[in-house]
Write a structure and sequence with these properties.
It comes from Cupriavidus respiraculi. The protein has five helices and five strands. It is α/β, with parallel strands linked by helices.
Amino acid sequence: MSTPRDVAVLVGSLRKESFNRKMALAMAALAPAGIKLEIVEIGQLSLYNQDNDDNPPAEWTAFRDRIRRADAVMFVTPEYNRSVPAALKNAIDIGSRPYGSSAWDGKPGAVISVSPSAIGGFGANHHLRQSLVFLNVPVMQQPEAYIGGADKLFDEQGGIANESTRAFVQKILTTFAAWIERNAPA
């Protein structure tokens, strides 16, 4: 059996009981054999400041190196004010700098937005996709993943309680595994 593709998962919410972290963990448990999902923490990253490009903090260097090692990236995010949370945007900026040295370049990507609201973080999902286009991240287009009702989605063990949502998440993961194979750099 070949080694599974390494997928770096960035969770947009830093909250301890984050629905998005629960979704990322549930997705890791449901991932098909061809991919391995691993959450890459972003809460420890100091705010991006271009003055630090020549002498970056150690956590920036470690984060950039981890993203570069990944075969693909997945973003699991809530919506804050019709956009992505500041911590996620900061991580994207840190990974993209210094200019011309982006760790994101060419990494196949997927965006999943999770929210208690009925529209499932639609605004954050699409706003994030705009940044990823600029960063040359080929983002999976279908199935679109706006998952609403997150406050009722998980069982006590953190699994996805709703069978139709679990089936949808499995479809996302299977499709993403194929997307990675079609779009991963040679």
